[in-house]
What we know:
Elements: H1 6-56, H2 61-73, H3 77-81, H4 92-95
Amino acid sequence: MSRQKPADEIDALLKRKEQLDKRLRTAHERQKEHQRLDNERRKLIIGAAVLEFMLANPDSPLVSNLREILDRHITRPADRALLPALPASDSKAESTGPKAENS
Length: 103
């Protein structure tokens, strides 16, 4: 069996490198997608647990604090419409200012 010419060997190695680079990019993309899905699932699980607690304990001080946090941080009208416990109007702008009790 004859040996490859150096130029042929370089071409073969470059082709192999391109294949490995493509596999590596694909693996990185799969890993990134998997991490994104895990993060989405984590948010869903936490949100479901918090919502269940809020519905089961409507008079809890923690629920009151959670409502204030949600009122401050959920700003898109379409998102607020999904949460009947939050005012749909722009009244949240008033609640984001400093409170008199904290002065």
